[in-house]
Amino acid sequence: MNSRDEKPAGKAANVNDAEAREAKAEMLRSDLSFAAMTSDEQDQHQLKVAEYIQSMCIELRAMAQGAELEGLAYFIDMARLEASTQVENRKSKTDLD
Fold first, then answer.
1. Count of alpha carbons within 13 angstroms of residue 19, beta-carbon side
2. How does DSSP classify residue 33?
3. How confident is the model at residue 34 (pLDDT cuts 50, 70, 90)?
4. Domain range annotation of the chain
5. Burial of 49 (0-12, 13-18, 19+ CB in 10 A)
6. For 41-62, what is each residue's pLDDT tens digit?
7. Which helix (H) or strand (E) holds 59?
């Protein structure tokens, strides 16, 4: 693979990083006004945050496992499982409404 072939992958990674930063920034802005949200808005916000945390934990666990940090990988996986539970709870609550 030549350097020309590598640039699009790097560019795609930069786009994904930018999207992740924007999603995080939006969540932080929303956190500032969480108390002012309606109950439905709070539920949607909590769902988005739990989904984001779940996806980040998947990536962090893979990094920890790759570095043979098994204890850390275990605790990150526990956080992923809790985020997954929260996602399921929020989705079922939304479905009931």
1. 7
2. T
3. confident
4. 1-32, 34-97
5. buried
6. 889 889 999 999 999 999 999 9
7. helix 39-66
